[in-house]
Amino acid sequence: MARNWAQEEVQHGRALGHWACLADPDFDAESAYARFIAGYRLDLESSQSLEREKVGRLRRVLVALARIFESEDDELAYAHFAANAKAEETYERQRHADFMLGVSYSHYKRKHVDREVAMSLKTAGLDPQAAWAPWASRPAYRLVRRRGAKTAQALAA
Fold this sequence. Notes:
Strand content: under 5%
Mean pLDDT: 79
Structural class: mainly alpha
Number of strands: 0
Radius of gyration: 18 Å
Distance between the termini: 44 Å
Largest sheet: none
Shape: globular
């Protein structure tokens, strides 16, 4: 399963590279891809699964909530670095993650966070169409907006 997911991620990265080249003809997607592959590795041997391990509902909710902030993980920070840093620049996780978050969070709209929360609720085994579900996305949206503004402000300083 992890290997299939990894193949989909490669396909996704190639598609993003193609679109980046269309938006910016000077962008070298092949070099950025090579830099990412050379510097970042995923653990493809993980055997843990929420279903297979019979993880309880509370734990599933916590895992799902943690995934909402997946954009803060090292993989995306490194992908941002590989695509945007100068060749002589070294990777600084926090700096590149902050920059990437400042850019991406500034584009998040309420509907994006609502959808992310609905997917997370479903992952946790909860009904994303329940009457209380919209209430779950409100604090998540406030957090995304606050973090995006804070990061953008720090970058501007």
